[in-house]
Amino acid sequence: MKKLSLTLLSATMLFSILLSGCGPKDASSTNDPAPTKAPAPAPADEKLVDLNFYMMNSPVNDFDRVMKKANEIIAKDIHAKLNLILVDSSTYADKMNLMINSGDDWDLGFTASWGGINFLENATKGAYADLTDLLPKYAPETYSRIPAGLWDGVKVKDRIYGVVNYQQWGTSKRNGFNFRKDLAEESGFNWEAIKGKPTIEALEMIGPFLGDALKKHPEMIGFETSSPYSLFANDPLYWNMESVGDQTLPGWINLDNPDKVINQYETEDFAKFTKIMRDWFIKGYVRKDGATVKDTSPDRKAAKFVAEKTYGWPDSIDVPGQNLAMSMSSKDKAPAVSVSTTRTMIPAGAGANSAISINSESKNIEKSLELIELLNTNDDLYKLITLGEEGVDYNFNEKGAYTQIEGKYSFNWNEWQIGQSYSPTFNRSIYDKNKDGETSKELQKLVYETDKTAEISPVTGFVFDSTPVKTQLANCTAVTTEMVPALSSGSVDPEKVLPEFLKRLKAAGVDDIIKEKQAQYDAWRASK
Amino acid sequence: MKTITNAIPNRKVKPRKRLRSARRQMPFYLLMAPGLILIAILSYFPMVGVIIAFKDYNARDGIFGSPWKDPLFKNFEFFFKSDIAKSVTFNTLFYNLIQVVSVTLCALALAILLNEVKNKFVSATYKGSILLPTFLSWIVIQFILFSLLSVDRGIVNSVITDNGGEAIYWYSEPSYWRYILPIAYLWKNVGYFSVLYVAAIAGINTDYYEAAQLDGASKWQRVKHITLPLLQPTIIVLSLLWVGKLFNGGLGDWNGFYTLPNDAGALYSTTDVIDTLVFRSLKKVNDYGMSSAIGLYQAVVGFFLVLISNYIIKKRDPDSSLF
Amino acid sequence: MLYRKLHFSKLVIHLMFIAMSLACILPLLLVVSISFTDERSLMLDGYRLWPKEFSLNAYKYVFNGAGSILNAYAVTVFVTVVGTLLHLLFTSMLAYSLTRPEVTHRKALSFFVYLPVLFNGGLVPSYILMTRILHLKDTIWVLIVVGLVSAVNILIMKNFFRTIPESLIESARIDGSGEIHTFFRIVLPLSKPSLATIGLFVSIGYWNDWMTASLYIESQKLRPLQYLLQSLMNNIGYLQSNSQASRSMEAAIGMLPSEGARMATCVLAIGPIILLYPLLQKYFEKGLTIGAVKE
């Protein structure tokens, strides 16, 4: 027995030596992340507080060079070391939830209420640190410079659990449509008339234009449809509604009647919408495989769309002469005009649209807040991390347009995750050094002004606790993911399928969800 | 450790004999030690997690500290209440049975025929080619399939339309997928299993064949009376492994069902298996308890299926049984 | 007559194999072709087996682009080689012992090995084990350790070992060879084909594993090849379905590589592992040369 255990022991020891002993140089040098990348052994360095900050990003070139520069600033100002960890966006939500659920170490993390990142749920569970009292103390500027209403969006039971990343594009939302400028002129389409129209009416006006444009350009596609995105289910604002809790699940309110939680799929608008899409599908205005196609970026890059939805505002009527382009296309390949149709509102999810949370178990909550404040107030630091170094990673071409240098540091346009890109002095973002740059500054001024006075969604601050109806939610999710894409892309006949869809939702327990939402919503409103 | 517990039931064995048996076993336990220790750490330690299926899990209280669900089976409820639980269970079993039968038969046939190809270079080329799909991950296969079947840019449709036909909407019609999915799984897996069988055939003592040839047995007779019986243990082990996974989509490799049809709602009626249903139902809810509940349900069903089949095999051929 | 019949059946067999080989090779050629096709032509002409407009841009993009491919190769190759060797060693030692009649508890031990195939505790406990107990997070070892044993391979290998004639082992014993010595000197060399077979599958497993990296790897330097590939393929879908969340997201989607670049990464990711089979070929063919040994 003794001999056996002895040999076992030596075998395992041998094994562990094997594990730690050999290996190619590049691998073993990165074995333990802590001591690497800090070649300067100055005594002060030892006391630097390590802060792990998780965010979604694709791989970044020359990351170490830029981070080293950034860390020089951070070490000097707040005596900390930022360890920015880039997680692939398709696994980010799963990874963070797993880390939270297994009590792993992390200090800061990008958080949001979409894409499965579950800001509200994790905040309710106590995964994020309560920042209500710390924020004004450790990050005063971050806290005070953005519209106060936004903080309601990151509150659970009146406590703040996330730091809002206020963006250069503002938070008040107004949706509309983009049209191909050249085609609209060719067809004599009066797109200005759509301004402010309810979406059903707008779609009815767009239809004939699509038909006309497609007759002249049969290789194009009228309007984008895809399985992950439904103009109805993913965008309540188009329908003058607002979601109570997660967007695609049943349970919205109508903004003109904000007392009553309704099943959005039972509304007349949804029925009309599916009918219009069916009509467009039969007439060939949308992709025939719109219910199942996932990636539409090839179509966008090939400038195939005649019309598209847009979140961009101010539109071409508010500020004429904007040089717009269709999404993912260039201005000369696909010039666009835009018109906004919906009301302007700061949605309930706006605060938690992009925010930073701090681990409630972190030993460095205050330091983390100091880092957030530094990122938000030190414009050079923020620009260094999000854009790289001017002259090395980017420059301005002869027309004054901002140009990235190929193969160099690029943050892949993910600056919105690590701080507030907003700045009243336009000092935290890059603008073309020409007329286009001036126009975007103009537009942004307008946006900031609106944000201060914009209507705030009546649902802001409400958190739905899904525990009592989890079974129903799971089953309703199964039904909506199956049927909403087909109905929203016109590939099935709504006359037949819509009633069936509603019946299946009922069987899955949709009414329980609505009832539960209503009860919690009423209680919350009464307590306010 | 093992030797001591071993000693108790064998009390009647003389001490010296016991000692000798212990001494004879020792080297084998030494050989097994690293593997067994790794299994104990990597597989058995996390297995405590199955109790999450009965818990209202939260990270604060951990796996043991989290409160029990009330009622205890609450986490299982959503699956059995789902209106499509029956149809996805049917799909799971349907595709799994097709896969077991098609992959086994094709792989066996290919392995036996490959054995007949005497030119080494040619046979290696064949083997190498049919093994290629095994190297691909589902997401790459998805892209290949899409470039074949895409409505506007796919190769198949461009061949059809070039010949004056009407483009087929492969991604909109569920019934096509009843064929596409089994073919895809067969395509990906058949090379793997035929190479496995080829290796098993290579292990057969060539004396048998020489003796049979001397007796004037035909090729088919040699296959029937030598190759197949000697392959039987391998076939049985693989089948037993599969039986345990009958309730898991794609026999445990369910990613194809999720990836290949682009996770398209319109195709769920023929592409949804238990795992894909659970995956997308819980994506929003994000509840570890509910997902482990269904995992446990699949495991328990598989466990009983394996126990029964193993029992039957043990009766007929004790050496081939798994345990 | 007999000659012709034989010839005919051989022809049929060969034709069948040629057709099957094509069915397996052509789709891969398609991937290669797309990776060499000009992006515009891909939009307009659709996918083709032969590029209509040839372009090397995709490869330029991948080699210039972020996430160094060469570094990813180094990680993947190291993990695959070390992982496969260790896996083969542990698996064969365990599987062989489970076939030995001397081991009185071999059935119970087989059960112990098999049970985890069915029951697993899910992600959370494994994650806790790897990160908080073994402290392997963000090390190259986590990529190896996770795939180090597989019950399925142990059980398959058990079957292979059973075909080794008992007489060989017996005679070694009479010659005074210890059991461990017998295993390494006689059993293992005789099992080359099965080791090569299992080894091939294990290395495919290690080569293609991206899940482990996505869970445990955080530094860019330790990202294996398949993880890069998966990111390229999956990010678009994720960003697109959430594009209403942020206006910058559309810009982020626009930054993602084209279809051609994704296919180029595919080619680079699967290319080297495909060469493994010809490399191992000689071990497959040798087989058990025990015809000489009298039973």
Number of strands of chain C: 0
- The SS-based structural class of chain C is mainly alpha
Strand content of chain B: under 5%
Average pLDDT metric of chain C: 84
Largest interface: B-C, 98 and 108 residues
Order of helices and strands of chain B: HHHHHHHHHHHHHHH
The unreliable regions of chain C are: 287-295
Oligomer: heterotrimer
What is the arithmetic mean of pLDDT of chain B?
A: 86
* Helical amount of chain B: 55-70%
Poorly predicted regions of chain B: 1-11
Structural class of chain B: mainly alpha
> Which homologous superfamily in CATH is the superfamily of the largest domain in chain C?
MetI-like
Q: What is the CA-based Rg of chain C, rounded?
A: 25 Å
* Percent of residues in helices of chain C: over 70%
What is the CATH first-level class name of the largest domain in chain C? Mainly Alpha
Q: How would you sum up the global shape of chain B?
A: flat
Distance between the termini of chain C: 39 Å
CATH topology of the largest domain in chain C: MetI-like fold
How many distinct beta strands of chain B?
A: 0
Explain how this protein is built:
Chain A: Pfam families: DUF3502. Chain A: This is Aldouronate transport system substrate-binding protein. The complex is a heterotrimer of chains A (528), B (323) and C (295). Chain A is 41% helix and 14% strand. Chain A is of the alpha+beta class and 528 residues long. In chain A, the strands form 6 sheets. Chain A has a 5-stranded mixed β-sheet. A 5-stranded mixed β-sheet of chain A has the order 8-12-7-14-13. In chain A, strands 9-10-11 form a 3-stranded antiparallel β-sheet. In chain B, helix 4 (74-81) crosses helix 15, helix 5 (85-116) packs parallel to helix 9 and helix 6 packs antiparallel against helix 9. With 295 residues, chain C is mainly alpha-helical. Chain C has 2 domains: 2-35; 66-287, Orthogonal Bundle (MetI-like fold). Chain C is globular and about 75 Å long. Classes of the chains: A alpha+beta (528), B mainly alpha (323), C mainly alpha (295). Chains in contact: A-B, A-C, B-C. The interface between B and C is large, with 98 and 108 residues.
